[in-house]
């Protein structure tokens, strides 16, 4: 990463932003199409940092010098909720850098259709004494996004081939055709499948997580029926196979 581009800035936050965006401009490509580069967006485009000149996909870049934990701080809760329900969220690049030598350690893509209400955490409103008193922000709960929807472009300093990145994203493309509520269910069930941690599992294994799913979807009174429905969707996406008699297997394992 070129640190000289931030020579005019004193704020550490501003320096990180300028340095990471300069690196992204020089190195990022579009994972959604064959385009080999992305265009930086003007500062007046809220929450969007880059756009693909070929397929017009939008991207947001968030950088951190430590590993991203269970959550990423985001903007206004109401705005993010509206964006999820309308399908207006940008794709997210989460970049971890090494401040000792300013190198990129990890870069992960979260596709825009992987953001659901289940991965949104409402923060407490700002205090009455704050400049924006009463404002309510949100966190993105990475722990509520299945590993399939967290696609590595750089892992431990090693670049993942673009073809591999695009193939993994293509596997998830059918999710785009689902409405936000349905898509949230599908991703929640896929997350449960990954939590089981075995290539082969049973319907009974999924039922062990009924209470967790009920907390995520408190208005649904037919959790067991919904589980079976979502397993059929994952089968149609060729992510899992039906083996018969309540047994399933993962078609493809996420590396």
Describe this structure in words.
The chain has a domain at 178-255: Winged helix-like DNA-binding domain superfamily/Winged helix DNA-binding domain (Arc Repressor Mutant, subunit A). The mean pLDDT is 92. 31% of the residues lie in helices and 24% in strands. The relative contact order is 0.10. The chain is an alpha+beta fold and 255 residues long. The strands form 3 sheets. Strands 1-2-3-5-6-9-10 form a 7-stranded mixed beta sheet. Strands 4-8-7 form a 3-stranded antiparallel beta sheet. The protein has 7 helices and 13 strands. A hairpin with a 4-residue loop joins strand 5 and strand 6 (103-110).
Helix content: 25-40%
Output the CATH class name of the domain at 178-255.
Mainly Alpha
CATH homologous superfamily designation of the domain at 178-255: Winged helix-like DNA-binding domain superfamily/Winged helix DNA-binding domain
Q: Give the SSE string.
A: HEEEEHEEEEEEHHEHHHEE
Give the beta-strand count: 13
Provide a brief overview of the structure:
The chain is built from 7 helices and 13 strands. The chain has 255 residues and is α+β, with helices and mostly antiparallel strands.
